[in-house]
Amino acid sequence: MLRTPTGGAVAGTASADDRPMSIGTVLLRLRDEFPEVTISKIRFLEAEGLVEPQRTPSGYRKFRGADVERLAQVLRMQRDHYLPLKVIREHLDALARGERAALPSGGGPRDLTAGGWDAEPGRATAARIGRAELLAAAEATESDLDEWESYGLVVPTAEGGYDAEMVTVAKLVADLGRFGLEPRHLRAMRAAADREVGLIEQVVAPLRRHRNPQTRAHAEATAKELAELSVRLHSALVQSALHIRLH
């Protein structure tokens, strides 16, 4: 089984043959481990020099197994280490030259060291990251982040910095932007999320006010479960509506 530099198995890249693949086939192979990856994302990584598929005389991309493996490594290092693409590219290029190159590591696979995130001096954790790290993770500019914040899509913590959920939000907003969806178009999603949070709070509020500590703890678990169900319902409704309108 193929392994990444971080020790993980490459999802869907081991194959008995190495026949050229279309970008659609590559997307399907990556989707098991990276459900949020899109064709636009793959093209972006190619434009940034992270992968170089062959081209047919007519200009179509043709990927090999090694290309899919490299894409999986890039996506995993972004997801697990929040590394900028420049650092990822340099790391993979060093490995390709046969050099020994270790990724930054801390107390766990989602930690970064040396000027990273600010849990305490000299040590960084994924609990909260700084502005520069968020920009790197989302592959965004300062003006992008300013605009996202002005629309309430990305919100820093009270202490400054951003939590892991905001990193996910920023990445998704950036990916949607590559399809032409601007922050002003996403205000309705922000408003819908706030309404869903209000519904969840109505359910768990009585549990949080209870004197029993176990009941209060159960409130947090209930809130998380309701949030997951809400996300699944939203996805199912969107998929159902698209199916009806497109068929």
UniProtKB/TrEMBL annotation:
UniProt cross-references to SUPFAM superfamilies, sorted A to Z: Putative DNA-binding domain (SSF46955)
Occurrences of domain HTH merR-type (ranges): 37-94
Keywords: DNA-binding
Keyword Repressor among UniProt keywords: no
InterPro entries xref list: DNA-bd_dom_put_sf, MerR-type_HTH_dom, MerR_fam
Pfam families per the UniProt record, alphabetical: MerR_1
Domain of life, per lineage: Bacteria
Protein transport found in the keyword field: no
Protein name as catalogued: MerR family transcriptional regulator
